[in-house]
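Quick question about two entries, pasted in order.
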Amino acid sequence: MAIAATFAEYARPDPQPGQLIVTLYGLYGRDESNWLSVAALVRLMGELGVDSQAVRSSVSRLKRRDTLRSLAVAGSAGYSLSPAALEVLRDGDARIFRARRAVLADGWAVVVFSVPESERERRHELRTQLSRLGFGTAAPGVWVAPAQLARETARVLARTGLDRYVDMFRADHLGFAGLAVKVAQWWDLDELAAQSAAFTALYRPVADRLARRTASDAEAFRQYVPMLTTWRRLPYLDPGLPLELLPAGWSGEAATELFAELNEALREPARRHAMAVIHA
């Protein structure tokens, strides 16, 4: 559960050092044989305005959660992602970079669970995992999400050992209240809209500046890593509910389009700068 928590923190305009470190490993460490030296990590974080003491404190916490593990390569101290953390990041890649919005014809994934009273902690963990995956609560012990999340959900529940409490179905809504009304009850749409609007308000000015002037590689790095760190929770908060069921002018669409624009503009120059720092 600790590893899942690392990747499930809410989007915020001031990402914490631990969140930024996870983003750096997701973007660059995995491509470097799943390893970054201590020196490279400190330099990259310094570029993001985080001092070395804060980096070391955050790394210690990530090691306690078994997100990072100490590993020396060719005599240089460094850290790698644990196998479980790598799995979580792989799942996150699809959700963050390749998610699509569901349509009504896709149907729904329905999770029904029953956890013995003697295992209340597992019940809480199961509810937490489903919530982080973007499920809404239809009734006690009955959770619903767009059907396109079924495969990812099955992997997460199996990885965390929660699958033994669960039955999962693919379903259509046949009645009786209007589905848009039910969706507004199963998800906190006001909160989802507010999170997306906050992202747009924070990063629309960045996109506007980029439209007027191309950023240097170093500037792109300093903009891209915090932006991605802020963004990465939003595709989990909003599981891609069909637009027909959402309020008109859904703010999640504008946020998704803005992320795609920024990702296109910043990803490669940010990577060039990161690689130059790592291999200096």
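Here is the second entry:
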Amino acid sequence: MFDLLMSADMMVPDPDAMTEKLVDKLGIHKHERWRQAFDNHPYIAHFLRVHKSLAVSPTRVEPQWHLDRPNPGDPLFHDFLESLKAFQGRHRPMITHSIVLAIHGDKFNALVQKLMERRLPFRMAQRTEEMPFDRLWLGVTPENPVYEPSVDGGLCIEIMPMEPLQMPADTFAQPPVQPRDPKPGDMIRVTARGFLVRDLDQTLRRCAANLDWEPSGAVQTLQEEGYRRARMGFSLANSATLDIIEATRWDSEAGVYLNSWGPGPYYIRIGVHGLEAKAEDLRARGTAFKWIEASEAVGGKPLIRIDPRELDGQLFEFEEC
């Protein structure tokens, strides 16, 4: 249904400082041209890359924050954003401004028409000189800019056409582009974004009925991890998946997190070439992490889980890619 999970985002009070932490602690790539800020859209966002090629890794890592200033480009967004904070919990360590899904223009037009015909609540931002393209949020209307989960089951989804992203042509190559001569420990791509929900079946029913969007395969029950997982895939094979997770045990890591902070964004998982080499790189950076010898979450293979205290509560993981 959708083509790309555009970014694994995080709302943080100082996205510039978080960018420096991600560069220093994890080795993620930054560039001044990847920082976005507009006078008429008062926010700061960094669209960071784990691999410099967007064809190899089209899903970016996005620390961002919206400033408390007049927003002539989208005057409704402040109220909507406050409702998202309230929905997720203002003290939750990880909150999202939206799970941004990209879809090619013809499919975008058809989806918006379906939303209209199904009388589902959504809101579109006006097109501006800085952003002359469509952006759509689910579960909200212009006359009542307060998010509610009836459309997407609590996933806080934003949808935009693929074309404004100006992805390089080889992003769409078949077979998918692979990195050239990766070195041990090199990051390859963002492989998954986790998202905790209280009722996985209900979320999936709403995504299927309202968006015609279903998991890539059967729902998995991971006993050791203590959760059920549905993987929402995208037509771009190098895109990260959206892993929708329902905790099944209160004393699992997912269960403790859910019952401490509530549903919402969870891990950002990055695939690397040579996991042991990446562990050495993290040690050299002084970045604390846990080495999990065999994680059911990645098919029984090793997994690195970064200590969230290193990144102000953000949860990053590394797997062999």
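Reply: Helices lie at 15-26, 77-88, 105-117, 200-211, 253-261, 275-285. Residues 19 and 83 are 26 Å apart (CA to CA). Hope that helps.
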